[in-house]
Amino acid sequence: MGKSATGFDWITILIYLLLVGFGWANIYSASLAEDHSDFFEFSQIYSKQALWIILSFLLVIILLSIEAKFYQRFSSVIYAISLLSLAGLFIFGSTIAGQTAWYQIGPVSIQPAEFAKAATALAVAKYLSGIQTNIKDFTHQLRVFLIVGLPMLLVLLQPDAGSAMIYFSFAFALYREGLHFAYLLLGFFAAILFVATLAFGPLWVIGGVLIILILTYLKNLKRRPNLIKYLFFAAVAVGFSLSVNYVFQNVFKQHHRDRFNIVLGREVDSRGIGYNTNQSEIAIGSGGLFGKGWTEGTQTKGHFVPEQHTDYIFSTVGEEWGFLGSTFIIGLFVLLMLRLIYLAERQRSTFNRVYGYGVIGIIFMHFLVNIGMVIGIFPTVGIPLPFLSYGGSGLWGFTILLFIFVKLDSERMSFN
Length: 416
Prior knowledge:
This protein is mainly alpha-helical. It has helices spanning 10-30, 44-65, 68-73, 75-92, 113-128, 138-156, 161-165, 171-176, 181-200, 202-219, 227-250, 254-263, 275-286, 298-301, 313-345, 350-374, 392-410; strands at 94-96, 99-105, 108-110. Helix 5 (113-128) runs parallel beside helix 17, helix 10 packs antiparallel against helix 11 and helix 16 packs antiparallel against helix 17 (392-410).
């Protein structure tokens, strides 16, 4: 078929296998009943995950068997199908825990948001690899923001703020392709301004911003700085800060407000909304250096951490495998992302490179937010840990995301 194969990257595949295998071992422990003594007496949770893992290996074979250029050629079609699958939830979807995010097919629940991430990464890569596309052009920036924003909006309407937040990870790929650093700086500044306003109030924050802008203007006075630009930034910052409380009270859900308040220290609630995080911190702290041993964690066996096999799976790692085991898992993720950066940079085509950075950004965002959530740095937002957390849709979604890139890399010489 005119392919120029260079072979699959077995380092990436090995890291994937280690993460998936270690994830299942911890799901087994987290879902093991206290009276379970026979290893082969599978409970419903970890037996289901074992089946999803086996099916994911079959999925890998399919993904690697497809010609690499198929993903570029049909990326727009895949993206359109993913948008339809997200929109269809509002007609045919099932509502679980207040979120209309799943299709119920017999005993199986499918969450299309997990697959939309890979589809969006393909669409972004397709658009940015176009000959006429220049990411420095404002019109092209708006179009790529629209590509990312459509699935993000549909996910947000489910409502699933955590999954919607992941779409900000495409900033990594856009920045790599030439998007001005000011956009990243603006996003970071907006986040800091938002949190600072909640913590200290708008008047203190506005005063601080104005002082910083005045001092910066005076420092650069000899260079004749543009006063209009400084006034514009001041007006935007003041308006944004004044709107924070309105957004927080009227746009955020009550459980989101509660979680922010707990992280900011405005509320103390170890038995209510903050119970999960509190118990997770106890579990991780009790693991010490070497951990209590696999299936021997008292917090884990006692099921003190709700949903420990899903979003809080890292607390099982911390308790039963200790600091060394937690470091090993974090090291695997860091190694995976560094390896993917290396693979992305050696691509000959813009499409492959952009898609690779899309993969890196999504995995990094999940990794950062999930572990930050488990140890109490970030509010609880329902973000799974890639390849480790329980869930068929999540495992398949990350498998598709990763192995499309493995395939693209294996035939990188066939791309111009």
